[in-house]
Amino acid sequence: MYLHDNNHISPKVRVGMIVLLVICFGIVLSNDSGWSQSVPSPTAENSRNGREKPASFSLELKGLDQVDFEVMPPVDLAEIQREDSLREATLIEPEPYRFAVAIPVEFGLENSGTWEDLPDGSRIWRLRIISKQAQTINLKFNRFDIPEGGKLWLYDPARELVQGPYVPFDRTPKGELWTAMTLGEEMVVELYVPPRSESEPSLVIGSVNHGYRGFGREGKSCYLNINVVCPLGDLLRNEIRSVAKITIAGKGTCSGQLLNNVCQDCLPYFLTARHCLKSADPNSIVFYWNYQSPNCTDVGGGNLADNQTGAVFHAAYTHSDFGLLRLKSRPSPSFNVYYSGWNAAVFIPDHGFCIHHPKGDEKAISKDNGPLYSSDYGPSPVGANYYWMIKCLDQGVLEKGSSGCGVWHYDNGGFLVGQLRGGYCSCDNPTGSEYFGKFSVSWSTGTQPITRLRDWLDPNNTGTLRMPGRNCDCQDQLIENITYSLTEYIVEAATFIMAGENVGAPIPDGPVVVKPDSEVLYQAGDHINLMPGFSVRSGGLFRAIIAPCP
């Protein structure tokens, strides 16, 4: 289905229907009230989980030396470093660690790049982007509109790191796309357009983000950092897999972690620091999994290939500095991530482990032998003790870019008890104190769902305060021949569901029924609600994702 813009569906779309449910602990189509569960967007896995290589890699096309290129204006590194030093010296509130600067551009399919036609009627467009002295490059597309079957890749000329394919599902509600990064000062952008496409693609690159520090082929963080593969991480091998490095708007970076919830339905809730999300578009966030050194002694060597783009904002609380997102799609099973456990009870942890990405570099682990101390910090009310203070880490350090990382208490498994706001620990001051917003405060101190965790991680209000982590073994399964209502409604045309809209009643002329031999694809950037009266008749297919909560 070709999505021309947020309010238009191509009139050539054939009516039809496909239903895909996520099966975790059994199929649940509705709860006792007759309403369906709130469900995530219909692609349950990251669109890049197949690691499909760019189409040009298997074809005899023009060499890259014959592909059109654009050279970015030079970046004044000395001025950027001066800005960073000034900002860090005068900073009152913490913020994401800046690693890149944006270069505004307007590169489209008509004014840049090289097209090549293939014998089967398909086409490939390629563009080389060169930004001298860049350690990394990532892009913002102001317009990302490609037909079904279209695919976009990014890679360096040596093909050492390939990002993509990006597909129509990756398009944000605003019609944009924020990409993962490639290494080095040159990036190749490649678009594949399938034969007999019902619409023409439209791409506009609006920003080339020039990475000037971190993320390179060699680690840049402090020598006191301890790689997660070292023995210090042995107790928290599962929790290490829950931690991701995030980039925000292609320029800033923080840390964070996936969380389990009481439903244990594998909804991909992600906890980080509120200050990392301030004024940020959640669609601009890229999550990098498994970015870590391959052995204990290396200071680099991590791989940026396991990543996904986009999230939905759910909640944040200024006084404890937590921010909760839900990823646009579940991480690919190939990423082997873990949904971390947590403890919202009021108690004093006698030690703490921190897992983080210092300055955006490979994943590190630190430990405080404890105990953790109740404390005030930042905007929290005086005397409220909304933070855990680590007076001095006994192993490792924390740095800029570690913001949002968790502090875990180990008790037959790791249980997260807070997330990092900031502090005074660094490579130059390894004995400085650090402050973590208490999970117990974030749990229920806020006065409404948008300011607390409880409503999202325990939506049925069971009173659970301690939740172990888990692996996610949800499987996608195509479900056919479902009848969910006796009331019939004939779908006459394809329907595009925007984020937050509902499928089913109230809809003109009655509830939705999918007829035999018909086919409709519903897509939502946030969630789909199946309302009472929704029906799929034998022979009809409808694509959706449902996450049951027993």
Give your account of this protein's structure.
The protein is mainly beta and 550 residues long. Helix content is 6%, strand content 33%. Strands 24, 25, 26, 27, 28, 29, 30, 31 and 32 form a 9-stranded mixed β-sheet that branches. Strands 6, 17, 18, 19, 20, 21, 22 and 23 form an 8-stranded antiparallel β-sheet that branches. A hairpin with a 5-residue loop joins strand 8 (114-117) and strand 9. The longest helix has 14 residues, at 77-90. The chain starts with a strand and ends in a 7-residue tail after the last strand. Residues 1-49, 475-512, 521-529 and 544-550 have low confidence and may be disordered.
Number of helices: 5
Count of individual beta strands: 39
* Proportion of residues in helical segments: under 10%
Instruction: Write the CATH fold name of the largest domain.
Output: Thrombin, subunit H
Distance between the termini: 33 Å
Task: Characterize the main sheet.
Answer: 9 strands, mixed
Q: Beta fraction of the residues?
A: 25-35%
CATH architecture name of the largest domain? Beta Barrel
CATH superfamily of the largest domain: Trypsin-like serine proteases
Mean pLDDT: 81
Low-confidence stretches: 1-49, 475-512, 521-529, 544-550
CATH class of the largest domain: Mainly Beta
- The domain count comes to 3
What characteristic shape results from the CA principal axes? Answer: globular
Structural class: mainly beta
- For the CA atoms, what is the radius of gyration? 24 Å
